[in-house]
Structures are given as C-alpha cells and as structure tokens.
Amino acid sequence: MTDLATALGMLADPTLIIVVLASAVYGLFIGAIPGLSATLATALLVPFVFFLDPLPAMAAVITMSAMAIFAGDLPSALVRMPGTPASAAYTEDAYLQTRAGHGARALGVALLGSVIGGIVGAVVLMVAAPLLAEFALQFTSYEYFWVAVLGLTASVVISEGSQVKGAISLLIGLLLATVGIDIALGYARFTFGSTDLLQGISFIPAMIGLFGLSEVLRGVLRPGGPVHVARLRTQGMFRETLHTLRRYWRGVVSGNAIGSVIGALPGAGGDIAAWVSYAATKNASKEGHLFGKGEGHVEPIVSAGSANNAALASAYVPTLVFGIPGDTITAILLGVLLVKGVQPGPELFNTDAPLLYGIYLIFILANLLLIPLGYLAIKGSSWLLRVPTSVLMPVIVAFCVVGSFSINNGYLEIVIMLVLGVLGYLLERSGFPLAPVVLGLVLGPIVEKNFMQSVIKTNWDLSQFLTRPISAVLVALTVLVLVYPLLRGLVRRRSAVDASG
Amino acid sequence: MTVEPTSAPTTGVPWRHDLVGGLLAAALGAAVVLHVRTFPELPDGQPGPALFPGIVGSLLVLFGLVLVVRGALDRNRVSADPDAGVTVQGRLRALAVLGLVVGYLLLAETLGFALTMGVLLFLLMWLLGVRPLVAVLAAAATTGFILLVFGELLLVPLPQGFLG
C-alpha cells in the first residue's frame, strides 16, 4: 500500500505531468502523419527521455505510444492511408465509413476502443507481470538463456512473410550485438582497431537509424501527391459510438483478448495483433461479408482498434519480467532502461515496486487522457494532415542526427545511425523484416552472457541446459514454437485435401 | 501499435532480391566464420569469444543459401517491383537526405552546429520542393529549437565551430 502511495506521489510531480502532456501531443502528431510509425516516434523521443529519471522516461514512451497508435486511425479514415502500420488492417473500412458519412462514428469507435484496449492491456499487465515475476525468481542463467532463445525463436516464427528472411534479419541483429568487448575473455571483436567501437554498437543510434532514417528514405523516394482530406461532422459522436460499442461488445472482448496475448509475444506488436483480430472477427461475424466493401464496416474497427492498444500494454509483461521486449517500442525502451541502470527482471518486482506501480498508473492515466486529447485530435485532424512532408522529412533527419549525437556526444553514433538507416531501408525493400534485427541486438548479449556463465561455472557440462525442470519446459516450448509453422502447414494441407476430396 | 517493422512487406519481392540477399548473407556469414578463427580460446582450450559469432556466422551461411535455393525454385512467381514509382528525382532526394548527414559529419566541427544544420536543412527542404522563403523559416526554426532544447535545456555540447 505504501508503494502505491509512493507511486501516486511520484505522479504528482510537475515535471512528470509536463512530460506526459508534451509526449501526448507529440504522439498524436507523429501518429497522425501517414508513414511515420509509433516506433519511429519512440526512436526520436529517446534522446529526450535519456535525460529523464526512469519513471518520467517510461511515462513519456507509454503516453506517446498510446496516443500515436490511436492517431494512426485519423489518416486511415480521412485519406485512406494508415498513420501507423497498426491501423493498416482496418484502413479500408474506416475510409469507406467516412465516405458514407459515418467518419465521426468510425473514429469515435477507434478512440473509445483504443481507450478500452489500453486499459484492459494495463490490467493484464498488472495481473500477469507479478505472477510471472514470482515464478521467474527461480530462474538461473540456464533458464534465462532459454527464455531469450524462446524470444528469438518466436520473433522469427511470427515474422510476416518469409521466415528464412526473418531468421537472416535476426542473425544480422545478433552479429551486430557481438561488436565490442566479449564477455568471456574481454577480447575486442569486430572493432577493426576503433577504440570507440570497444563498447559495442550503441543501441539507441542503431534504432534511430533503423526506424527513423530508413523511414525518411522510403518517404522521399516515393512522395505522395496532394491528398484530399474528407470532412467530418462530430456532432453526437460519443452517443453513437457508445451505442455501436454496446452492439458489437463481442468484438471489444475478442479484440482485447487477442491483443493482450499477441502483445506479450516477443517481436509481435500491435500491428500483428490488429491483423489477427481483424481476421478472427471477420470469421466469427455474421456480417463478415461487409468487411472492407461498400460502406465499410465498423465491427473490425471495434475489434482490431482495441487489439492494437491492448497489445501495446501487454508487451510490457515480458519486458518487465524477463527483460525480453514484446515489441519494437519496448525494445527501444529496454535499451534506455539498461543504459540508465534499471535492469528489468523479476527482482524489480521486489526492489522497485513504486516504479512498477507508477508504470501501471501511467498506463491508466495515459488512456484516460486519450479521451479528451483524442477528441481534440479528431476535431483538428484535417489540419494535422496538411503538414507538408517535404518540410517534415528534413526536420526528422535533423533530429536523427542530433538525437544520435546526444547519446554519447560522439560522431561515431551519427555514423552508426547513418549505416543502419541505409541497411534498414535495403532490408525492408528486399522483404526482410526489421523487428528481428532489434530483438537480436537486444537479446544477443543476454543469450551469450547466460550461456557463457553457465558453461564456465559447470566446466562445459551442457546437460544442465536440458535436465533442470524449468529449462526442460522452456526447451519444449521453444521446440513447439519451432514446429508450429510445420504443424499449421500440415493441418492446412489436410483440410484442403478433405475439402477437395 | 507499432510497430512497424513487422508490418513491412515481406512477400512479393522479385526472386532476384532473394538471390542477392541470400548470397550477401551467406558471404557475410562466411567472412565472419573465417575471421573468428583468429580469436583466442579460453585457457583450457574451450571455445571463447569465437563461439557465439561463429555460430551466428554459420547460421547466416545456412539461411543465406536456403534463401538462394528458394528464390531459384520460385523464380516464376508473380511479384511487385519494389522500385515501381521510384523516379530519378526520388533517388536524388534520398541521396540528398544521406548527403545532409554526411555533410553534417564533415562540416559540423569546423562550421559549428547552427550554421551547418541551418544551411543543410535549407538545402534539403529546397531540394524537396519547399518554397525558398518557407525553407529558410523552417530551417531556422528547427535549428533554433534544437539549439534551445538540446543545447540549452539538455546541455548537449553541440559543436560550436569557428563562431564559438
């Protein structure tokens, strides 16, 4: 109880309130610009939060991302371009709804659906994280090794498209993580004589490059023409929205459930949650034939719109309990926390309970704040969408440069940002997903450290990796994750044969 | 949410991209495997610093080759051209973006942050088609904002150059 009181006291800090409000406005702005993702917004925010204490830093990222994911729905409904990839699943429906004169309702549903999703995700985090943490207290280096391997495996298996490409992306991330002093002998690897590289590839400039610069490159290569922004009438929006949410309450429930589960998987973010939720709702709905056609349909906005925000919060479960990020936003945040000396893990639940209560409260606060600010954003959305990208892109590049520099006051960081920016662009262009690169970069050192510690203390007795009970369960889970695509393929083939026969 | 990287179009690229991507990955992996052979071992002859990058390199070779084979087997697939819609101007604009970063790296220490960033921002906006007056104002406002927030508020020692 005293921890909760301490957390509440921390929330009353004026600095924190200013940080939350400023990051909320920033999140709404970036989220509403088509092509700029919440991950990019996080990467650009990091140089600022780097200078804050851990709780305000997390508050900034949490508030900003909740706002950005909702704001991504604005251009979906108004110009048929998802503001963030998390809105892509139901962009067609939202836009068709606007064309049919139901734009305000579609956005109202997206707004309240996001708020409900965010709060449910936060409750899942509050309940699941401490339970898992208690279990994880029994973990030793063996179990941590397997948890990290499980995270890496899951990130590849759930990669959209080719899993071989997901694996290559992951290996590139793991390779980048080996640059610098090694854990076993202190030997300098892949530094090519540079003393600056001894400390390894700085994580934050790497993220700024992968998500910031690469996105700018994509943006300037294919600039969109002038866009026609649809008009909205927001009168009676909330009344109609509440009525719609009552009518499609099943969609709210399933969207939240799907979002909460998928968000907690390493490497799967809200965009995957939104797609899965869309497909599940379409299969289950009596009105599935209306999805994406004619006037569009509000049901997928209800379910997928809550799923992406629910995933946002549940991604913090593995991040806080195991130090294994659930999505790219938490991956970036994890990098910041580690630099600031906060080591996420089960011990955190005993040693820094006020910080955790603070995080839970921030989630609730951010989502409640989304109601008035989101409403204002809907009212001002046509103005938001008129910001010219030809001005915005150079400004983002300037922030990428200064943001990378400010982490260590060094030019090497700018070079890392530049190189990874080009690499990120080339990888995505050839169909290699970027999320596994990040996971590799974050989890590589964890995998190697725990492996080397384990083998050195047992003089290379590898049997311990398999015979310890929790290790054995984690190995079984990893194998299950690995064979899952094969099983799914077999089942599909069987049902296709049955259907044709 | 997010997270965008996972939403990248991961299918539908021409098979040549798989071929080139796979070969590059395999070549990188092979280079890593060869390089780590020079790394020292642990005192009792057990693998040390070379172990982890060695495994990663070997897997890169393996998956790179798998991608090459799959690309070759699937060479008749219908795929969208990832370069569709990219014009010469588009490429020039992308080069200009990279030019801004490289230009900053080369000039910032000598000319200082304000002058270098201000001029480079103006040039880039102008190249992207922003009217000169708007470009001057936007470049000045951005530079001023960064100086204020990063330089004054967050105390980042931005390069001062000859003016400082």
From TrEMBL, chain A:
<feature type="domain" description="DUF112">
    <location>
        <begin position="17"/>
        <end position="439"/>
    </location>
</feature>
<feature type="transmembrane region" description="Helical">
    <location>
        <begin position="357"/>
        <end position="376"/>
    </location>
</feature>
<feature type="transmembrane region" description="Helical">
    <location>
        <begin position="144"/>
        <end position="161"/>
    </location>
</feature>
<feature type="transmembrane region" description="Helical">
    <location>
        <begin position="16"/>
        <end position="36"/>
    </location>
</feature>
<feature type="transmembrane region" description="Helical">
    <location>
        <begin position="200"/>
        <end position="221"/>
    </location>
</feature>
<feature type="transmembrane region" description="Helical">
    <location>
        <begin position="434"/>
        <end position="453"/>
    </location>
</feature>
<feature type="transmembrane region" description="Helical">
    <location>
        <begin position="411"/>
        <end position="427"/>
    </location>
</feature>
<feature type="transmembrane region" description="Helical">
    <location>
        <begin position="48"/>
        <end position="71"/>
    </location>
</feature>
<feature type="transmembrane region" description="Helical">
    <location>
        <begin position="315"/>
        <end position="337"/>
    </location>
</feature>
<feature type="transmembrane region" description="Helical">
    <location>
        <begin position="106"/>
        <end position="132"/>
    </location>
</feature>
<keyword id="KW-0812">Transmembrane</keyword>
<protein>
    <submittedName>
        <fullName>TctA family transporter</fullName>
    </submittedName>
</protein>
<feature type="transmembrane region" description="Helical">
    <location>
        <begin position="168"/>
        <end position="188"/>
    </location>
</feature>
<keyword id="KW-0472">Membrane</keyword>
<dbReference type="InterPro" id="IPR002823">
    <property type="entry name" value="DUF112_TM"/>
</dbReference>
<dbReference type="Pfam" id="PF01970">
    <property type="entry name" value="TctA"/>
</dbReference>
<keyword id="KW-1133">Transmembrane helix</keyword>
<feature type="transmembrane region" description="Helical">
    <location>
        <begin position="465"/>
        <end position="487"/>
    </location>
</feature>
<feature type="transmembrane region" description="Helical">
    <location>
        <begin position="383"/>
        <end position="405"/>
    </location>
</feature>
UniProtKB/TrEMBL annotation, chain B:
<keyword id="KW-0472">Membrane</keyword>
<dbReference type="Pfam" id="PF07331">
    <property type="entry name" value="TctB"/>
</dbReference>
<feature type="transmembrane region" description="Helical">
    <location>
        <begin position="50"/>
        <end position="73"/>
    </location>
</feature>
<protein>
    <submittedName>
        <fullName>Putative tricarboxylic transport membrane protein</fullName>
    </submittedName>
</protein>
<keyword id="KW-0812">Transmembrane</keyword>
<keyword id="KW-1133">Transmembrane helix</keyword>
<feature type="transmembrane region" description="Helical">
    <location>
        <begin position="94"/>
        <end position="127"/>
    </location>
</feature>
<feature type="transmembrane region" description="Helical">
    <location>
        <begin position="133"/>
        <end position="156"/>
    </location>
</feature>
<feature type="domain" description="DUF1468">
    <location>
        <begin position="20"/>
        <end position="159"/>
    </location>
</feature>
<dbReference type="InterPro" id="IPR009936">
    <property type="entry name" value="DUF1468"/>
</dbReference>
<feature type="transmembrane region" description="Helical">
    <location>
        <begin position="19"/>
        <end position="38"/>
    </location>
</feature>
